[in-house]
Inverse folding.
């Protein structure tokens, strides 16, 4: 709930991964959507499996487990992604933590399915510790379009000699491919290439 | 439901989820005014509102909310619709 002028624009998008970079961009503009895949790390195969299976694996708490992540805080592990919980090890009842995290994930899954079925968002996926092939992008696009043929996908790659940061092209109706830059600070999530992302988002919605 | 009934119901939820008994909600309250706000806590708030009032709030409706006043109006419309 925010009344800043930029937030509604960035609420039009929903990150499908591969990491938290787009979520941080949204936060930069005070947009705080309750999106399931806004923060977790997930790869192409995992995302496509989740989409194809309608995230059914998230309906069973037996598929969830807790493990100790960075900074001695709990992370939640699901079959295809993990989620940082910001709860210090030793300060919480882990059984309650697991149950509440399970309920939270189920709610965010419901929200994602609503948005997929209604084609409410422009879904965003950005490569991270891997490189996406054209086939990867097509498989994600096919998977989101199984929910609604009007679904749109913005696939973002790391810039190369052929891909200039901040540029994006519609490669098929409803499918865009863009580029953002990459350096150590971006890799460690200390910073986000805001200017490139803004140009891409504005172009896609023009 | 009248506005005050909704405020009386959601204020304890906000305080409980945010672990902050000093939170006072007004129609113009936005997330930026609530310390420790994040999207995970927002999920907890929405889930508790749904359970307490036996209503369903859809993602598209939640995304459009700009302040607590709009949230109250949404809740009232849901209750009125039965």
């Amino acid at each position: 709930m925010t009344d800043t002028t930029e937030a509604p624009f960035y609420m039009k998008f929903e990150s499908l991964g591969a990491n938290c970079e787009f979520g941080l961009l949204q936060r930069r503009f005070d947009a705080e959507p309750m999106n399931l895949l806004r923060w977790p790390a997930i790869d192409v195969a995992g995302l496509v499996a989740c989409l194809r299976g309608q995230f059914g694996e998230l309906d069973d708490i037996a598929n969830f487990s807790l493990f100790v992540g960075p900074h001695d805080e709990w992370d939640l592990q699901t079959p295809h992604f993990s989620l940082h919980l910001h709860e210090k090890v030793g300060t919480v009842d882990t059984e309650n933590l697991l149950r509440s995290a399970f309920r939270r994930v189920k709610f965010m899954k419901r929200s994602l399915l609503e948005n997929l079925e209604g084609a409410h968002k422009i879904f965003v996926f950005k490569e991270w510790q891997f490189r996406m092939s054209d086939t990867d992008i097509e498989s994600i696009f096919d998977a989101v379009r199984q929910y609604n043929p009007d679904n749109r996908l913005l696939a973002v790659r790391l810039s190369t000699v052929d891909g200039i940061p901040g540029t994006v092209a519609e490669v098929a109706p409803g499918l865009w491919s863009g580029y953002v830059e990459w350096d150590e600070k971006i890799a460690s999530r200390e910073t986000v290439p805001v200017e490139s992302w803004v140009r891409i988002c504005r172009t896609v919605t023009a | 439901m009248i506005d005050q009934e909704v405020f009386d119901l959601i204020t304890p939820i906000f305080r409980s989820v945010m672990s902050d008994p000093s939170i006072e909600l007004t129609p113009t309250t936005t997330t930026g005014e609530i310390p420790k706000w994040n999207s995970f806590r927002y999920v907890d708030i929405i889930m508790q509102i749904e359970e307490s009032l036996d209503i369903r709030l859809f993602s598209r409706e939640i995304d459009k909310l700009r302040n607590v006043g709009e949230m109250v109006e949404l809740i009232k419309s849901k209750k009125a619709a039965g």
